[in-house]
Amino acid sequence: xxxxxxxxxxxxxxxxxxxxxxxxxxxxxxxxxxxxxxxxxxxxxxxxxxxxxxxxxxxxxxxxxxxxxxxxxxxxxxxxxxxxxxxxxxxxxxxxxxxxxxxxxxxxxxxxxxxxxxxxxxxxxxxxxxxxxxxxxxxxxxxxxxxxxxxxxxxxxxxxxxxxxxxxxxxxxxxxxxxxxxxxxxxxxxxxxxxxxxxxxxxxxxxxxxxxxxxxxxxxxxxxxxxxxxxxxxxxxxxxxxxxxxxxxxxxxxxxxxxxxxxxxxxxx
Length: 269
Prior knowledge:
By secondary structure, the protein is an alpha/beta fold. It has eleven helices and ten strands. Mean pLDDT is 90; it is low at 264-269.
């Protein structure tokens, strides 16, 4: 079936074809027979068949209309399968999961919009009342490294909200067509249930010019007396750079500076 499909580069179509990594996604997601799974970009359904075996329901969202007949032919026999032909960024996740007690989101994300999808799904996970299973995605390996390291704003922000784990690197040869770069399995276990605007504002400001010290980046935006006091209280050296802080220190600094903005921030996400 793969050779009959006309792959569309603008949809970022690189389909996983290795069962080892499909099984790893199942295990990392911790889904069970009570879990409603949303699969983003099922493609030709290689991962879908594993998800259907292990979950209560699979809702697959596929943007490519040409794949819809193929997916229906393959999976419509399963009563726990639902297929939606839509852009995942336009989907109302509340509507998808409105009656679901346990939920999980997985998928091989289009490399060009993976960050937007992760933002949308994690934001949803933080306010839903459903029990969350780990959200597990396939992304570019270099993108996965951003989320698992603390030398950039994405890594700091998402490790504030989640336990983030890069489980495995997937060689380019495991996809069809073969991409130019390796993929990786990235797993998010959400541990906070509220978006922290103060925290995100601090981190974005701190990384505006990464080569500068943390203090020099922050003094443009926070009241100097509060900044001085916070650095002293947390034993932070003024020569420290943002990439040197751990999550615990970031969270303490955000709390200390929560009411000391000196100007209105612009969104540089």
